[in-house]
Design goal:
heterotrimer; B: 240 residues; alpha/beta; Rossmann fold; 6-stranded mixed β-sheet; 10 strands; C: 357 residues; mainly alpha; ABC transporter involved in vitamin B12 uptake, BtuC; 1% strand
Chain lengths: 293, 240, 357
């Protein structure tokens, strides 16, 4: 039993990372209806920015806010430059543009920082907390705390600030939002900036566990997609729950299903996506009816 | 007519290649309720959309001397133009209170906003009872009240109402128009209302204009239009 | 989804051009030259194909084996892109995992040869059928929903495939892959191995092109276009959307599988890392740049996928990705019909000049 709980804890740690990237995906999808296939790559790029700051001698906790600021500005810039021209275009066009962005950002990171793996500093102290026969590493605790904090901040932003209210208005009805005086264009850019920031958090959290390299987020992205599908693409809370569930499911499948093992764990998100599509296409917490063909 | 608050001169508007307004001239005095009558497809809704910046226009629109034509809707909202659109434009997933507060999105006077929230709830007591409720759960009439309430939260200098009676029970409609009249009398808000129900509109309005095929074909005081034989035949449904 | 009207508004240019080019400008003074131009314009689609085929048959006798090999790979990619084009360009659905179906075809052929010594040519229909069946199986849950989910599912498949191939080591050869003999040219042809492979690939490409064209001209094609241009309207008209979309996905998987099969003949080696997500994304890039929705698109895309990386690789390891990424975005902005669209535009204006001449 303790072993099982231990696995659940490990899964939650992994799931929190998926949750943060899923959160970034859901943020953009809610505001613009776009699924940003480049989200993982943007997070990877942000992580390189953080690495660059630490390589220049900054301590991690000083590099982090700088990185988040850069990511926020970068996200807004990308919305303005790359996405704005195809606003209102057919979904296929927009998806293809984000795939192009995916390829470009991936290669650009490789060009700037090379494809060789880099060590990324672990922001959390080595060691673990032990209680009741369970071991929880500081790293896992830290990841959970950070993702919890991000969730909390987003909740405050959306529920208790005017900017957040404007963003929710745009998500609900852009035409009406414009009529009451919300600057919709600016709000969409804000949404991308916010998503890039949240994504950057996931990149910075995952880098110490894996290694920093341009393809680092490719795998994470799939888990994040599964998390968002499970939670519902328009539900930030659902993204977090979905991320945790997918993380735990992955860890348990790897530990207890002999056939899956550690190498086939990446089949879990595929299975999750297929199951959700078959059983509850709108996801657990999705409100919007999924367009059925 | 130098005393006019809103002046529209030679206004053209349309969607893509389809032109709907062909040179509309219109003047509305400060604190007036102005009704726009006309058959379906005459361009009434387009006229309101042109006034709130939702469609591209050519021509002149001035509000108290400020040129409005060509500005986007959010800029016009900041200039005090509140549009209650066709279909009401409710933010359905948000609560009633959030919808109302969005009406005051461009304002910064916190105390004034709280006071106006109170004021709107006084006009529409049914909204006060539902402040925390999701707006999508309201009935059609309640949503129309919410839409007007939201527009009032802007403390508008110009209130544009598009078919407030559409799909509502006659009693609810009468109540709505009574409130519009009260708001107009108490706060001197200038109102342009587009309405199919000419009776109602002429009862509440000071002046009225008849729009046909994108042009104003008849203008005058509400009393005069009510007495006009042609209007009576076309829009009031009886002979004088 | 609203259907990629803009992406694919232009794309049928390749076929439309036949009508566009019909003799309208024959003034009274247009003499014999006018008649010639008319004949050329009226049949220019067929003439172009004939010329292209002639060149295609001539080239392998003029080029060094390495270049013949490169052209063979262009044909292989073109067949895969033909499938992807069917899905993205004609049905308006998106797949980020076509590399997986390519891999199914490649591994299918490899395993049949490795285990049962199957004759090379016989493996192709089986491999293609396997890819078709898999496409059908995965298409069913994904395609009936919003277009986005097909992209998600296919991406997840592509990611999952590599570890899966590595796991079943006894069959797939694991990380080491499988090495196989290449089909030997029959003596009567007098061809060298590279030339024989080239002509095999050419034959498969021609057959699949004809198949795709037949498909698109049939009821199926019309249904697909209806789906792409306006799903709601298509449904009202009684097009069985999910049926046609699923079928389009399965067909496109089949073409990718056929391409994979030929890939194995040509390369004589398969390993999991050749079929990573990168392949899928490269294929998507190829068809977008080549031209969505046109018959020439896959061929141009094949050339692009084959040559752009090898040329830009010299600049920097990351250069192909940078070029791909930028080009995809640029194409979506300025030329949604891709290279094929640009070529068609060019051809149209040339013809106009000729007619006026």
């Amino acid at each position: 039993m303790a072993g099982f709980l231990q696995q659940v804890i490990e899964g939650l740690g992994a799931g929190a990372i998926y949750a943060s990237l899923a959160l970034a995906l859901v943020l953009i999808h809610r505001f613009t209806g776009i699924v940003n296939f480049a989200q993982g790559e943007l997070a990877m790029f942000s992580t390189y920015v953080a690495w660059q700051f630490t390589a220049a001698g900054l301590p991690f906790w000083a590099a982090l806010p700088l990185t988040l600021a850069v990511s926020f500005a970068g996200g807004m810039l990308i919305e303005r430059v790359v996405i704005r021209p195809v606003e209102g275009a057919p979904e296929l066009t927009v998806v293809i543009v984000t795939v192009g962005l995916f390829i470009f950002v991936n290669a650009a990171a490789g060009w700037i920082w090379s494809f060789l793996i880099k060590d990324f500093p672990n922001p959390f102290p080595v060691g673990a907390v032990e209680a009741g026969g369970l071991t929880v590493s500081h790293s896992t605790l830290g990841v959970l705390a950070v993702v919890g904090a991000v969730m909390g901040l987003l909740y405050l932003l959306f529920r208790h600030t005017k900017v957040g209210l404007g963003m929710r208005a745009v998500a609900a009805d852009p035409v009406s939002a414009r009529l009451v005086g919300v600057r919709v264009g600016r709000t969409l850019a804000l949404g991308w900036g916010l998503a890039a920031t949240v994504g950057a958090v996931s990149g910075v959290l995952v880098a110490p566990l894996l290694f920093l390299e341009p393809n680092m987020m490719g795998g994470v992205l799939i888990y994040a997609f599964a998390a968002a599908t499970l939670g519902g693409f328009d539900s930030p809370g659902g993204a977090v729950v979905g991320g945790l569930v997918v993380g735990v499911a992955e860890t348990l499948a790897g530990a207890y299903v002999g056939f899956v093992g550690s190498d086939l764990k990446v089949g879990v998100p595929l299975a999750v996506i297929l199951c959700v599509l078959l059983l509850r296409p709108q996801g657990l917490f999705g409100r919007a009816a999924v367009e059925r063909a | 007519m130098s005393g006019d608050f809103l002046t529209v001169t030679d206004l053209h508007a349309g969607y893509g290649d389809a032109r709907v307004l062909h040179g509309v001239d219109l003047a509305v005095g400060r604190g007036e309720i102005c009704a726009i009558l006309g058959p379906n497809g005459a361009g009434k809704t387009t006229l309101l959309r042109a006034l709130s910046g939702m469609v591209r226009v050519r021509g002149g629109v001035r509000l108290d001397g400020t040129a409005l034509a060509g500005r986007p809707p959010d800029a016009l909202a900041r200039l005090g133009v509140a549009h209650v659109p066709e279909g009401r434009g409710t933010f359905t997933p948000l609560t009633v209170e959030e919808n109302l507060r969005l009406g005051a999105f461009t304002r910064r006077d916190r105390d004034g906003i709280e006071a106006d929230l109170e004021r709107v709830c006084a006009y529409f007591p049914v909204l006060r009872a539902r402040l925390g409720q999701v707006a999508g759960s309201l009935s059609g009439g309640e949503q129309q009240m919410l839409a007007i309430g939201r527009a009032l939260m802007l403390r508008p200098r110009l209130l544009l109402l598009d078919e407030p009676s559409l799909g509502l029970a006659p009693l609810v409609t009468a109540e709505l128009f009574r409130i519009v009249r009260t708001v107009n009398e108490q706060e001197r808000t200038t109102v342009v209302v587009v309405e199919q129900n000419a009776h109602l509109a002429l009862d509440v309005a000071h002046r009225a204009h008849v729009l046909e095929s994108g042009r104003i074909v008849l203008s005058g005081s509400a009393a005069r239009l009510r007495a006009d034989e042609q209007v009576a035949r076309s829009y009031l449904g009886y002979r004088v | 989804m609203s259907g990629p009207a803009e992406t694919a508004g232009e794309p049928m240019t390749a076929e439309k051009s036949e009508t566009v080019g019909k003799p309208v400008a024959a003034g009274p003074a247009a003499g014999r030259r006018g008649a010639l131009v008319r004949a050329v314009t009226a049949h220019r689609g067929r003439l172009a194909v004939a010329a292209l085929l002639a060149v295609a048959c001539y080239l392998p006798f003029q080029l060094v084996p390495f270049h013949v090999f490169q052209l063979t790979m262009v044909l292989v990619y073109a067949v895969a892109l033909l499938g992807l084009n069917l899905l993205v360009g004609h049905a308006g659905q998106i797949s980020l995992g076509h590399g997986a179906f390519f891999a199914v075809g490649a591994y299918g052929t490899a395993i049949m040869i490795d285990r049962w010594d199957a004759p090379h040519l016989a493996t192709l229909p089986v491999a293609a059928a396997a890819a078709f069946a898999l496409g059908l199986a995965f298409g069913l849950p994904a395609v009936r929903l919003h277009g986005l989910y097909l992209a998600l599912v296919t991406l997840a498949i592509a990611v999952f495939l590599v570890p899966l191939l590595k796991r079943f080591e006894s069959v797939t050869g694991g990380s080491m892959g499988l090495t196989l003999g290449k089909p030997a040219p029959p003596a009567w042809t007098g061809l060298a191995e590279d030339q024989w492979l080239y002509f095999l690939a050419l034959a498969v490409a021609v057959v699949t092109f004809l198949l795709a064209r037949g498909l698109l001209r049939s009821r199926v094609g019309r249904a697909l276009h209806a789906v792409r241009d306006d799903e709601a309207a298509a449904e009202v008209m009684g097009v069985r959307l999910s049926f046609h979309k699923t079928l389009a996905f399965a067909w496109s998987a089949m073409f990718a599988g056929a391409a994979g099969s030929v890939y194995t003949w040509v390369i004589g080696f398969v390993s999991p890392d050749s079929f990573s997500v990168t392949l899928s994304i490269t294929l998507l890039a190829g068809i977008v740049v080549g031209g969505l929705g046109s018959l020439a698109g896959p061929l141009l895309g094949g050339l692009f996928v084959m040559f752009v990386p090898s040329i830009s690789q010299d600049v920097n390891e990351a250069a192909p990705g940078v070029v791909f990424g930028l080009l995809i975005i640029a194409v979506m902005y300025v030329a949604p019909a891709g290279l094929a669209g640009l070529a068609a535009r060019l051809a149209r204006s040339t013809m106009r000049i000729l007619r006026k001449g």
